[in-house]
Amino acid sequence: MEKKMRFGIKSKIIIGYLIVIVCLFIAFIVLNSQISSLQKERNFIIDHDIEVHDLTNRIEKHLLDMETGQRGYIITGEASYLEPYNSAASSWEKDYNALYQLLNNNPNQQEKLEKIKGSIQDWIEAAGEPTIALKKENNTKELQQFFEKDPGRQYMDDIRSQFTSFRNVEKKSTETRATELDEKNQKIKIGLYGLLLFVTLISLAIAIVLSNSIVNTIKEVTQTIKRITASKGELKGRIKVRSNDEIKDLGIATNALLENIEERNWLQTNIAHAVTMYQGIASVDKLAEKFLFTVSEMTGASFGAFYVREENDKGDLFVKQAAFADRKGDAGRESFLIGQGLIGQAALEKRTLVINDVPDTYQLIASGLGDVKPKSIFIVPVLFEDEVIAVIELASLHEFTVLEQELISQVIETFGLTINGVIRRMEIARLLKESQAMTEELQAQSEELQTQSEELQMQSEELRMINEQLEERTKDAEEKSFELEAAKEDLEEKAHQLELNSQYKSEFLANMSHELRTPLNSILILSEMLEENAAKTLSEDEEEYARIIHSSGKDLLALINDILDLSKVESGKLDVLLAEMNMSELPDQIERNFSHVAEQKEVKLKINKAQNVPDIIHTDEKRFQQIVKNLLSNAFKFTESGSVTVSIQQVADHRLTTAMRTVDTDCWLEIAVADTGIGIPKEKHQLIFEAFQQADGATVRKYGGTGLGLSICSEFAKLLGGWISLSSEVGKGSTFTLYLPSLSNGLVDYEKVNFAYEEVAVSVEEAVEEAVEEAKPEAEITEVDHPVQPVEPSLQDDENVFQDKRVLIVDDDQRNIFALKTALAKQGMTIMTAHNGIECLEMMKNSEPFDLILMDIMMPQMDGYEAMQKIRGELKLVDLPIIALTAKAMKNDREKCLEAGASDYISKPLDLNQLFSVMRVWLVN
């Protein structure tokens, strides 16, 4: 039979598409031909009819030009009017011939053109040429007679009528051709729709044929699969496909899959049957018989033997345990050694042997009618933990199929475990019998152990209770740990908030310092100038007013400095500069600074310095002086009569506390300031060391003050590694004692000596009370943090330095500018002013050089830092003295000014003596 030609789904679809494409191509060709014909007719109408109308209009225009030129010439006699006449006379016949040629397919219109031509020639001969000739001859009389009759008008009217008739005919002809064109267009449209309908029908027909061809075949395959599915596992049915395409391939593949599934189902079913068959068997011989019977039934084997390994003195020996179709017990040898014969070789190599060419000498398979020679032998070793524990040999009258071989191989994979389990169970049964004999002996011992077990159980219960208690304590500890962790996080958050608050406070105080110092600068400078009364224009009362204003400004400045110092200490931003300090000069300094105060208050000032005080100690001299001055200022403020005594001595070794001895220092100093003032109640001793606190409201009203002095002294003492103690009695006076180490090896942690106050407080109070002398208060003195040095009596000695010097003041505050300008102008200097850094740079570029610049820092648009950098950088004025003036006296301000380019630095409010001194140094240099 000839092989049926293959016609796949892809080929069917491609052929269907090709048929549709061919139909579309034919339709396109037909449509393109019709459209081309329609385009040609449309072009003919456009080109021919437009050309006819154009030539007609041009002939009429030539005739009009001839008539106009004739009349113009006759009226004016100008020869220029004959130019259009002559041009039109020579051109109208060319256009006429072209028009006549276009109408060669329309004799009727050509005939009308010939009549129009005759009429034009008649007009030329009867009216055109004769009148021009008469005009040339200047025969006016005949011309007048000619125009009285005017035969040319009749010719012109006839020509226009003829042209109108000609155009009407052409218009109708155009309309007729347009109508025919519309009819053709309609026919093409109908033909196009018909063609599209035809192609659509063809496409649908092809699609239906192809889809039916594919779908019907798929339906047949689907129905077959459904029948197989509905048969509840019966896989005998097969798919039959008549078409020779991919669906047939699908059917063949499905049939192969069904066959494979059927074989797998058979394989799995027989494996499951074989596995369940030998469950519950307790002896090896019964297991072997059952296995041979089941496997022979599944594979159609006619003969078989089952050998199990036994260990003896000669080695591993395989002994026959069962046989199938055995004749008189001679089915195979009784035993064999490993490697002996084919079955021994299979055990040795641990591999399966299949022999299909069975020799004639092989044992025959017996039946009721006779003996039959087997056609195939199958030898399979049974493995357990990669060791051969049994060998099975089967013989069959037919060749073992691959599926039968696979069945036996898969059954054997787990059969080794079963054989080993049966052997183990047999061994266990033997051991069980032996153990039963021992059970009775152990029973007595068991009763004894039972008693011990009960005792252990009681101990276990006690241990369990203890364990529960430990778990509860562990749980409590974990909860407390969690609470401590939460508290730690809360404290960290609060610490962060405190840090932010401290930062905001520092910024606020810096800005407030600037805002307060700026107007205070003007007040101090102008009041000092008024107090000097250099021009002698003020009365004594006015001078006193100026002194009061100046003194009040100094007090306000001291208050601002106190607040800033306290803020710096609290935020940890106050620098401590350790250096050598000459203690031998301290009594003279105290005498020089406070003798006039004592004289004014009529209070005795006593200074006692012991011999054991070293001449040199290591500390921050500035902070030390602030502490001593504050304590003395307070003593004089609250002492109106009596005395103020300053005692300076080194703390004796026997008075050193344990904490004081732990500090790495050369010696401890004790500076006691005792007064005979109003005294402080004992319950207020700790209160007065707090910021903005005094003993009571009456003290504030009578003596004034802010309550910051002692707070600052206490903080400074802590920074220097010491502390301040107080011994006081109301009405008898007070003694403030400063304990301070000599810090030659650097700062110490105050916490190490913080409790020393408690240890020495009693002894200090007793010692100080003995030195206190009773006195009555008389007058009030303002608390002074930084006493002002005496003002120089005159500045006239500097006129030769300041005279005619050009000084530029850069400040955005008009009050400061006025105060500085007035003070400097009195010294003979020429003053120029700028309100910000930009104006300063402009003035320096456009004016004569300056000898010195006073530069404010906080200014709008461009601050002092940037202005100084541009002066040093862009203007290259590296030697010009620039003195920075700022009211924001915070940490590192001096360093920032010097880094920006300042030659020197003065904080506001300005001291004129200090300012003149600094200016003198830089102007002389």
Describe the structure.
The chain is α/β, with parallel strands linked by helices and 925 residues long. Helix content is 60%, strand content 13%. The protein has a six-stranded antiparallel sheet, sandwiched between helices. Strands 10-12-13-15-14 form a five-stranded mixed sheet. The chain is flat and about 150 Å long. The model is unreliable at 697-702 and 752-798 (pLDDT under 50).
- Give the strand order of the largest sheet, numbering strands 1, 2, ... along the chain: 3-2-1-8-7-4
Q: What oligomerization state is this entry in?
A: single chain
**Rg for CA atoms:** 67 Å
Question: What share of the residues does DSSP label as strand, in percent?
Answer: 5-15%
* Poorly predicted spans: 697-702, 752-798
Average predicted local confidence, pLDDT: 76
Query: Which sheet architecture does the biggest sheet show?
Result: 6 strands, antiparallel
- Strand-pairing-aware structural class: alpha/beta
Compute the number of helices.
22
Proportion of helical residues: 55-70%
Instruction: Tell the overall outline.
Output: flat
Q: What's the count of strands?
A: 20
Report how far the terminal alpha carbons are from each other: 130 Å
